[in-house]
Write a structure and sequence with these properties.
Blueprint: E1 2-3, E2 6-7, E3 11-15, E4 18-22, E5 33-36, H1 39-47, H2 54-71, H3 75-86, H4 93-106, H5 111-149, E6 157-161, H6 178-185, E7 190-195, H7 202-214, E8 218-221, H8 226-231, E9 237-240, E10 244-246, E11 251-254, H9 257-267, E12 271-274, E13 280-281, H10 287-290, H11 299-302, E14 303-307, E15 313-317, E16 330-333, E17 340-343, E18 346-348, H12 352-358
Parallel strand pairs: 6-7, 6-9, 7-8, 9-12, 10-13, 12-17
Antiparallel strand pairs: 1-2, 3-4, 4-5, 10-11, 11-16, 14-15, 17-18
The structure holds 5-S-methyl-1-O-phosphono-5-thio-D-ribulose.
């Protein structure tokens, strides 16, 4: 993706032992790069959400292992790195996937070979993420193209998305937004409704910022608006991302996704999920029972941060002092509410059979 004309990924090794990421906690008001140099800094970046989004969390963890091995490439060092990183965030399964892949590649090697192999494996994970998302973009763009064909000529296809499952949530392209970018490049007229996505406002702060950078027409809406828009025919399709999708097609994503799926179902609006294969948890089927839902600091609900008219970044409280708050970060949309899963191998039904049709090696 281009920022002010310069091509960027969201994460890249800048020099030996220096990993550079974009500090997403400062967007949209400031584009700031942060350099990570050791295990604790990588873990902090994930935990404090300088980097976030399931695929980017996985890539950061992989690079984080490579940073950790610079200090200690022993079996104990590798194990400590994997445990420390795995504990940072519980829901996105890409974290576990990336760490298992790093461990499987590195553990059999002698210590002297581990560092070079870790750098190479982390780079492969990042490159594969880009290729996966580009393919998701191609398959998803065909759905947007089909939606355009069902509309009166000239009118834009209205896509509703939740949270940020765009370029910033991955190494490049995004998952839910990859089809939007691909369709936009193909010249299909489109417009994106961007859910603000309280409490952390990933939609208002991040999705709006990256769509604006790319020149894609969009409108930010409060979280509760989507149902109203769907009732009035103003949404042609929804595309969201996912942090973990079960082998039976239950989709875990940012809190509030389920309510959008319910509204879409009630109004006959197709509801698609951009799903890179590392986000499939083949070990579970029942998303409601088996996916750990992250609960975060209540201050994300009771406080809001933004820029004042004179340019200062300020945090203000919006709840009464002493009112208890709860902060569930994700929810599960049952497979029956999902129209289709857009993977790098094509679009399939949100069912075990649908997924196995595209990934037969998992049977
Ligand atoms: O808490 P976050 O910002 O990490 O949550 C991100 C999401 O829920 C995304 O929709 C999901 O990770 C898919 S990213 C391509």
């Amino acid at each position: 993706m281009r920022i002010d004309g310069t091509a960027y990924r969201t994460i890249w090794p800048e020099a030996d032992g220096i990993l550079t990421v974009i500090d997403q906690t400062r967007l949209p008001h400031e584009f700031a790069l942060v350099r990570l140099t050791n295990l604790n800094e990588a873990a902090h970046a994930i935990r404090a959400m300088l980097v976030r989004g399931a695929p980017l969390i996985g890539a950061t963890a992989a690079y984080g292992v490579a940073l950790a091995l610079r200090a200690d490439a022993s079996d104990a060092g590798l194990e400590r790195a994997c445990i420390t990183l795995l504990e940072t965030r519980p829901t996105a399964v890409n974290l576990r996937w990336a760490l298992e892949r790093m461990r499987a590649r590195l553990a059999p090697l002698p210590e002297s070979q581990r560092l070079a192999a870790a750098d190479a494996e982390a780079a492969s994970i990042a490159d594969e993420d880009v290729a996966i998302n580009r393919a998701i973009g191609g398959h998803g763009a065909a759905l947007i193209h089909a939606a355009a064909g069902r509309k009166a000529p000239g009118g834009p296809v209205n896509v509703l998305t939740h949270c940020n499952a765009g370029w910033l949530a991955t190494v490049d392209w995004g998952t839910a937004l990859a089809p939007v970018y691909a369709a936009f490049e193909q010249g299909i007229p489109l417009h994106v409704w961007v859910d603000e996505t309280r409490p952390r406002n990933q939609g208002a702060s991040l999705t709006a910022w990256e769509l604006k950078q790319h020149g894609v027409p969009h409108t930010v809406i409060a979280d509760n608006v989507g149902g109203h828009l769907m009732q009035h025919g103003k949404v042609d399709l929804c595309i969201v991302g996912t942090d973990r999708t079960t082998a039976a097609g239950d989709v875990c994503n940012k809190i509030g996704t389920y309510l959008k799926a319910l509204a879409a179902h009630d109004n006959g609006v197709p509801f698609y999920v951009g799903l890179p294969s590392p986000t499939i948890d083949w070990t579970i089927a029942d998303g409601l029972r088996n996916i750990p839902i992250e609960e975060r600091d209540g201050r994300e609900v009771s406080e809001l941060t933004g820029r004042t008219a004179d340019g200062r970044i300020e945090t203000v409280r919006v709840t009464p002092d002493g009112s208890p708050v709860a902060n569930y970060a994700f929810d599960v949309t049952p497979a029956r509410l999902v129209t289709g899963l857009i993977t790098e191998r094509g679009v399939c039904a949100a069912t075990r059979e649908g997924l196995l049709g595209l990934f037969p090696e998992r049977a």
